[in-house]
Specification:
Number of domains: 3
CATH class of the largest domain: Alpha Beta
Strand order of the largest sheet: 2-1-3-4-5-6-7
Oligomer: single chain
CATH topology of the largest domain: TIM Barrel
Helix content: 40-55%
Number of helices: 20
CATH architecture of the largest domain: Alpha-Beta Barrel
Shape: globular
């Protein structure tokens, strides 16, 4: 294909409960296609509604040669449906999908979905650079490492591609392709990577196989340059999405020192590990703007920790939580329910251990994703996989059982914990706005409700729909606009007015010159 090839990338829907932030992987893919000379657009259905009619309009407007997407297991079915819809609308489109799920199910995915043309397996950037100029000639795909594809009804899977040794050479994510005002309104942190790779072998994780066991580290200078770019886009909070930010203490410290040297002032969070933190590093992270860290403990049962090859002890977890507290950082410990050999007794030990840690904590349910050791060697573990209904693999529903625990038992444990949290929040929401609650609680609840309202605006295209059936002159009085949004979302008009006015004041919602309002 010539360099003027047009690539449309799809960000498939993602639920509010999963704190959707700008899709980092898709932005890396967009940057790689750009570097290969393509024209690129992102059709973002995370912060706008998806329907086939909208897709048809977008395809007609941009007229892409290729439609690509990525997904996690949870929204894999939705991503497939969008590609299938696109193929019916424009049969000549080349359809591509990548991501962790299809990297481990490539042949199966192609066999079951005849509308799919190419699967990019594993790390995508180098593969895209080689594939992009050859997209219109499938006879030249045979030697491109890291893809599986369909040609003349036959499926081929090429050799794996080597990981990119120098990740400083990878183009920075093309975040400018996103509808940034919508993400700013939603307010979740924007994610970035400072490294790829994880040396640990947890049996429930895809990371080691997907991005390698040997850590590949970006230079602190380039990391901070990307941070400056993100801040320059108007975002004020960053989440470092590395599998393990503290993979090397000295290198984590170098990034913090570079942040301080650059005079950057912003808040950020990171993923760490109970056995890779020390007080000096945590204090330096705090000085550099980090306010919270997350680390997986997974279980309060030492034998289960050994079985899942977590590589930590309960004592390490206790010490890590204490160090975070001493450094002034908020710590969030995560636990997995339904691990191999889980029993009612081990769950009770986990519950008691989590409560004794002295930090925030939460529970998820084991989801044996494709590519994980626990799935591929299921016969070695006291586990039964109950379904391959991928939409249920959100770590909030039980898709497994152990010999001692049914799916219902597993969900009941997590539900009981969630009820404690939601019951308190529901009672606070009942009193919200009545000048009864402490100011900090009022502020937190207002933020929670604001996020729900804004996501409803985005997910339902309510800003756009407000002007579809307006008066004959095509204009909507602002008072009626607020009423329309209040009726559509169930929020009080005064709250709707306050939130939307704040978005207007930040120029995230602007007048379109015809008496209507739109996202900037």
């Amino acid at each position: 294909m010539e360099n003027d090839v047009k690539i449309a990338l799809v960000a498939p829907p993602y639920p509010l409960s999963e704190a959707p932030s700008p899709p980092l992987g898709l932005c890396y893919v967009g940057a790689a296609f750009r570097a290969a000379g393509a024209q690129v657009r992102i059709f973002d259905y995370i912060v706008s509604a998806y329907n086939k009619d909208k897709l048809a309009r977008q395809l007609a407007e941009f007229a892409p040669d290729v439609l690509g997407t990525g997904s996690v297991t949870m929204n894999f079915p939705t991503a497939l449906q969008i590609l299938a819809d696109a193929k019916t609308l424009q049969p000549t489109l080349i359809t591509i999908i990548g991501g962790a799920h299809v990297s481990f199910t490539a042949r199966e995915t192609l066999e079951k979905n005849p509308f799919l043309d190419i699967i990019v397996i594993g790390e995508a950037e180098a593969t895209i650079m080689e594939l992009a100029p050859l997209l219109d000639d499938s006879s030249q795909w045979d030697d491109i490492a890291g893809i599986a594809f369909r040609r003349a009804g036959e499926i081929f899977q090429n050799k794996p591609r080597q990981l990119i040794a120098n990740i400083d050479s990878i183009p920075l994510p093309a975040r400018d392709l996103l509808p940034l005002s919508r993400y700013k309104a939603l307010g979740f942190p924007i994610s970035m990577l400072t490294s790829r790779g994880c040396p640990y072998g947890c049996i429930f994780c895809q990371g080691r196989r997907l991005v390698g066991a040997k850590p590949r580290l970006r230079s602190p200078e380039l990391v901070v340059e990307e941070m400056k770019t993100i801040l320059g886009m108007g975002f004020g909070r960053i989440n470092i999405a590395d599998d393990l930010f503290t993979i090397e203490a000295g290198r984590a410290q170098s990034i913090c020192e570079e942040i301080l040297r650059g005079g950057l002032h912003f808040q950020w969070s990171a993923f760490v590990r109970a056995n890779t933190v020390d007080l000096e590093t945590l204090r330096l992270m705090k000085r550099a703007g980090c306010d919270s860290v997350s680390f997986g403990v997974e279980s309060g049962d030492e034998e289960i920790l050994k079985k899942i090859k977590k590589g930590i002890t309960l004592d390490m977890a206790h010490k890590a939580a204490a160090l975070c507290k001493e450094a002034g950082l908020i710590a969030l410990a995560s636990f997995i329910v339904g691990l191999p050999s889980e029993t009612p007794d081990s769950l009770e030990r986990t519950k008691n251990f989590a409560a004794a840690l002295g930090c925030h904590y939460g529970f998820h349910i084991l989801a044996p994703f494709p590519g994980t050791t626990v799935r591929e060697e299921i016969e070695k573990y006291d586990l039964e996989i109950l379904t391959n209904e991928w939409a249920r693999y959100d770590a909030n529903q039980a898709v497994i059982r152990t010999s001692a625990l049914s799916a219902r038992d597993i969900e009941a444990f997590v539900d009981a914990f969630e009820r404690e949290i939601t019951a308190e929040r529901d009672e606070q929401l009942r009193l919200w706005g009545k000048n009864i609650l402490p100011p900090d609680v009022e502020m937190r609840l207002s933020g929670y409700q604001q996020t729900k309202l804004i996501f409803a605006l985005l997910e339902g295209d309510l800003l756009e729909k407000s002007y579809e059936d307006v008066s004959s002159n095509g204009k909507y009085p602002r008072s009626d606009f607020y009423g329309h949004i209040a009726a559509a979302t169930g929020f009080e008009r005064d709250f709707v007015t306050k939130v939307i006015d704040s978005l207007m004041a930040r120029s995230l919602i602007v007048a379109d010159g015809n008496g209507a309002w739109r996202w900037s």
